[in-house]
Amino acid sequence: MATGLRSVTERAGDGSGRPVFDGDNGEELMHVQPGVSIVLGNRSPESPGTLYISTKQVVWLSDADRAKGYAVDFVSVSLHAVSRDPEAYPSPCIYSQIETGAEDDDSDGSDSEGDDSLNLSKISEMRLVPSDPNQLETLFGIFCECAELNPDPIEEEEGEHNWVFSADQLEDEAPEDDDSEWAVPRNSIGVNGNHDLANSVVQLQINDQRFEDAEEMEQDDKNGHN
Amino acid sequence: MLFFSYFKDLVGREVTVELKNDLAIRGTLHSVDQYLNIKLENTRVVDQDKYPHMLSVRNCFIRGSVVRYVQLPSDGVDVELLHDATRREARGS
């Protein structure tokens, strides 16, 4: 799946003039809305056209030019809304923002000289203007349904999340043996490759005479030298 | 599911949603789903310079994956409750 808006030049060969959908992978047509004009970025509206909404994408096909069409996957639609404010746009429409994956939103391909100079992948705003404004709520609802069908694919992390929220959490997660005097961590520090640092630490303790049991040391009488 | 449950309790409150593209939208929280997709009502754009065309739209659906922050009413946040809930969720997962 591509991010952003893309051009659609192919139509179904059955003469229906519909877009090609990937039925084998479960893509279904949800809604067809004729009489819709499309506005990309700051460009002039393009019409007449028909809107096809599938479970995976939104496709607009020109009625006049059978090689012209645009499509965007729902995973790339960041938000959509019903726009009725005439100051925002003269005609009531579905306003949507498209994730382009680009940082720079200044160049939205608003060159209206023709498709050759239009960079669809940079289009970040799209308006769909139905000839019948009463259809807006229906269209909005279908956009919502389809957006919900297209959550971001989740990459499963292996193992537990090792998030630390507070020092308390660290205390709780490292229960000590009551026997050992030394706080050797249960999870060995840096067992890494061939270096067994945990054992190295233990050995260090044994070798240091200061930590040997008192009985094992040569004891002088408390009162004085021998 | 923690924040899904949490946001469900905030339905009807005014929130400001800041998107990853820096757009900030204020509105009444209408609903939220398990993916944290957010529907707002009576939305208006907080900073009109970036997206002047958007201005005010009646209803708005925001994809959960593009949300950076959700700014909440301060009396809608019980910090202790959230703190405990997130710690429980972290341990349980």
UniProtKB/TrEMBL annotation, chain A:
It is found in: Cytoplasm; Nucleus. This is Chloride conductance regulatory protein ICln. It comes from Buddleja alternifolia. Gene3D superfamilies: Pleckstrin-homology domain (PH domain)/Phosphotyrosine-binding domain (PTB). GO terms for cellular component: cytosol; methylosome; pICln-Sm protein complex; plasma membrane; spliceosomal complex. It holds the Pfam family Voldacs. Residues 169-181 have a biased composition (Acidic residues). Belongs to the pICln (TC 1.A.47) family. One of its GO terms (biological process) is spliceosomal snRNP assembly. InterPro entries: ICln (IPR003521), ICln/Lot5/Saf5 (IPR039924), PH-like_dom_sf (IPR011993). PANTHER family: CHLORIDE CONDUCTANCE REGULATORY PROTEIN ICLN, METHYLOSOME SUBUNIT PICLN. It comes from the Eukaryota. The keyword ATP-binding does not apply. Keywords: Cytoplasm, Nucleus. Residues 1-28, 164-194 are annotated as: Disordered. The keyword Cytoplasm applies.
Automatic annotation (TrEMBL), chain B:
It is found in: Nucleus. GO terms for biological process: mRNA splicing, via spliceosome. SUPFAM superfamilies: Sm-like ribonucleoproteins. GO terms for cellular component: catalytic step 2 spliceosome; Lsm1-7-Pat1 complex; P-body; precatalytic spliceosome; U4/U6 x U5 tri-snRNP complex; U6 snRNP. The keyword Ribonucleoprotein applies. Its main location: nucleus. Residues 2-76 form the Sm domain. InterPro entries: LSM_dom_sf, Sm, Sm_dom_euk/arc, U6_snRNA_Lsm2. Keywords: mRNA processing, mRNA splicing, Nucleus, Ribonucleoprotein, RNA-binding, Spliceosome. GO terms for molecular function: RNA binding. Component of LSM protein complexes, which are involved in RNA processing. PANTHER family: SNRNP CORE PROTEIN FAMILY MEMBER, U6 SNRNA-ASSOCIATED SM-LIKE PROTEIN LSM2. Belongs to the snRNP Sm proteins family. This is Sm-like protein LSM2. It comes from Buddleja alternifolia. The lineage of its organism: Eukaryota, Viridiplantae, Streptophyta, Embryophyta, Tracheophyta.
